[in-house]
Design brief:
Length: about 150
Amino acid sequence: MYFWKIDKLNEQLISDGLSESEQFKYLMANSILYALAVIQYETPNDYDTLAGVVGVFVTIFGLWLIYKCNGGINGKQIIQRYLSVGFIVFIRVFVLFMLPAVIASLVIQEMYLGGIPEETTMSLFIVILASQVVLIFLSAKHINYIAKRTNA
């Protein structure tokens, strides 16, 4: 199972795919991340609700885009590719974008905006939305790369 080296995963998916055992590891890792993401940590406010509603539409568009990048109706192994590539892309985006963006947002709020609010703010909503979009486009890019080298 890869955690960072997406090029090695891409090559494995192009050459011989993932074994059932490897697919299960990615399924489990994705399921854990999804479960952590939907935990309600606080009382939702309007930005939480907005993030949920917008997130549904972004997800629908994103999965459609990934499906098309995988070859559409002629594509192969979309679930295997999506779960494994998506996992590594998530780890990278979390470390390189989401975590720094949230920390920067909190520091700015603490230093310049009178403290860190207990509720979700517009800036956090923007970070969440931008993260979803970045995740989708990077996943689609890698899946497209794999699909083109395996004839779907």
